[in-house]
Each structure stands twice: as C-alpha cells, then as structure tokens.
Design goal:
The chain is of the alpha/beta class and 363 residues long. Helices cover 45% and strands 20% of the residues. The structure holds nicotinamide-adenine-dinucleotide (NAD), the ligand O=C(O)C(=O)C[C@@H](O)[C@H](O)[C@H](O)COP(=O)(O)O and zinc ion.
Amino acid sequence: MSRNDRVVAVAGTTPYDITIGPGLLDDGALLASTLRGRDAFVISDDSVAPLYRQRVVEALRDARADLRVGHWTMPAGEASKTLASFGSAIEAIAGAGARRDATVFALGGGVVGDLAGFAAAAWMRGIDCVQLPTTLLAMVDSSVGGKTAVDLPQGKNLVGAFHPPRAVIADTATLRTLPARELRAGLAEVVKYGAIVDAPFLDWLDAHAEALLAMDDDALAEAIARSCAHKAAIVERDPFEHGERALLNFGHTFGHAIETEQGYGGLNHGEAVAVGMVLAARLSERLCLSSPAETARLRGLLQRFGLPVDAPTGLDADALIAHMRLDKKAQASGLRFIVWDGAGRARVLAGVPEDAVRDVLAS
Ligand SMILES: NC(=O)c1ccc[n+]([C@@H]2O[C@H](COP(=O)([O-])OP(=O)(O)OC[C@H]3O[C@@H](n4cnc5c(N)ncnc54)[C@H](O)[C@@H]3O)[C@@H](O)[C@H]2O)c1
Ligand SMILES: O=C(O)C(=O)C[C@@H](O)[C@H](O)[C@H](O)COP(=O)(O)O
Ligand SMILES: [Zn+2]
C-alpha cells in the first residue's frame, strides 16, 4: 500500500476493507493477502480482460509461486448479466477444479462484479470473492455491500444472493481507460449518496464537477472514498435490506423499469438511475414531500455531469408500471418507493398510488 491509498473498513459479521488507490492491481502482496487457499479464478469481460487481467495474474503469481490461476471471460455489457452467463461461469469454475478455499477475483465493472459475486456465492454454496472494480460505478457502489445478481427479461437483478466480498481493491488508475460515458454513469450513483444522506456532498460535487469530469485524481479519490464510506455505514447497519439499506435504491424503481423495458440495451444503469432519481423527486413533489426547487437543483447537477434527466421517449407507462410491480421493494400492499424530502433526506414510502406514478411518467 502506498501513502496515496485510502482504506474504508466495512464492519459487521463479515468485515472487509475497501482499499482505494492507483496501481493496486500490481500489488501482488495485497491481492495475495486475500487468499485462503492456492486457487484463484479471475472473472472479467472482453473489454477489461485484455487491459488488466495479465497484470493481476502476474502480480498474484509473483506473490505466491504455488498459486493455480484460472480465468473466464464474458462479453462486456448488461445484456450478458444473464442466467446463461452465470451457468457458463459456474462451469468454468468447476472445470478449473476450484475447491472451497478458492477465491474468485471479479475484475471489471458492476456487471462482472454482480455476476462473478453470484457465481462465488453459489459455487459449493459459497466461496470467497474479491472485487477488483474498474469502473467508477463499481468503485463507489456495486463492489461494496454484497448484493450479487443476474437479470431476467422480467426484471433487473431478480436472481441473486447476498454474498459480501472478502475484500474490495479499487485501482483508480484503471479509470484512465474508462470511456467518458461510463465515468458519467458512475457519477450518477455518487450524486445519489448526496441526495439521500449527505446534502453538503451535493455542494462539494457542484464545486468539483469540472475536476471530476476531467478525471482529477484528488477529486476522484475523494468522491470514491466518501461514497464508499456512506455505503459502508449503511450496509454494515442493514446488510440484508430490512430497513435503511433500501435508501440506496433511490431512483432505482423507475431506473430498473426503464432498463428492463429497453431490454438492457438502452440507457446504462447509471444513466437510468439519473433519470430515475429525477422522476422519484417529481413523484415526491406530486406527494407534497419536496419542492420543485429541490428537483431543479438535482436535475441541474445531473445535467452538469452530462447525464440524461428525462425518460426516453416511446416507453409505455403501463409496461413500466408492470415492471415496477416486480421490483424487489414491492409488497402485497403495492408499490414502495424511495421518496425524497429534499437534499440529504430520503425515506421508504409504501402504498404509493399507481396513479401518482402514472402522472409523473406522463408529465
Ligand atoms: N451490486 C450492487 O450493489 C450494484 C450497485 C450498483 C450497480 N450494480 C450493477 O452494476 C452494473 C453496472 O455496472 P457498470 O456501470 O460498471 O457497467 P459495466 O460493468 O457494464 O461496465 C461498463 C463498460 O465499461 C467497460 N469497462 C469497465 N472497466 C473499464 C476500464 N477500466 N477501461 C475500459 N473499459 C472498462 C466494460 O467492459 C463495459 O463495457 C449493473 O448491472 C447494475 O445493476 C450493482
Ligand atoms: O446496494 C444496494 O442496496 C443498492 O440498492 C445499490 C444500487 O445502486 C444497485 O443498483 C443495486 O444492485 C440495486 O439493488 P436491487 O435490490 O434493487 O436489485
Ligand atoms: Zn444502482
């Protein structure tokens, strides 16, 4: 670890560290410190593997000469986060002869992290998974907290498991190769933390918007560490989403419905969450919980980050609402939303009338 690295500890029954810093994928000692046995299995996608997998494998082998390292690669993109890919990953892990003390390394964005984490959760009823996030979104959100899943045509993340990582090692130098669109997508989840629990963070993001978009190292490191600290605090208090963890779903009821209706080939997750947060803010206005001025501020910040803030045209409201009925927060009593009371304040609201949702989608 260098003096530039930051560590966020996640407490709880299965505690782990999130280590954040440049060049960590070359830190064989840090990577190898997470191993229980002599088997490592790297899961990545076909955009990330050519860029970074060899470095990880070499760093591990330099640190542990007796290590057996296998790997499997999936096609990049949300459309690959499927039961079929999950099956292929499991067969590859089986083919490598991984035992219970093997470790899966999830090298990539949230798609790889969610799928590899689910494979690790299922193989022999659970082996270790070390998250090596390479997108901003994965560094600030998906690598932390242990939600793993794949999508179905019927909805996002409908099949999965809670399986906390053994460690999260975020090499911020990998962001140098990240497409600008994916950087912006990650900023949507960063804004989410300000919106739900940290109003001053929204001011900070406003003040550092240009630096973040220009990939200024210090600004990015601060945004990542502050986001991880928020996520860590929430998931250590509520690892299985019985209560406050649901706040992390702000914007996701609308966002996931849009992703599903677009067949996982339209807006990416961060973009859908950006639109979803604005729609959730407008729903909150419609329910007299927040003001148009608050919505305008949130919308303006997301726009500064180059994110979409309006629902794509041509989507059918009935189809979107049907997807929302299968959202994991929905109950027999109806839809539950994360509603917004303004900057830094959100809560779960049950029994939201579908008519109010329909009004927001129509406006
Ligand atoms: N488990 C959770 O708590 C959680 C939280 C948030 C999001 N998610 C999930 O995460 C997924 C979205 O993750 P994402 O935004 O990282 O998308 P992603 O994994 O699809 O990555 C985006 C694109 O960037 C490429 N890429 C990744 N790292 C790169 C790098 N360093 N250089 C160049 N290209 C790179 C990928 O190959 C991909 O094409 C969604 O499936 C979402 O549901 C899960
Ligand atoms: O960690 C959580 O809890 C979240 O809700 C984080 C979200 O950003 C993430 O997209 C998550 O995968 C959504 O979870 P889901 O339970 O709605 O599928
Ligand atoms: Zn999300």
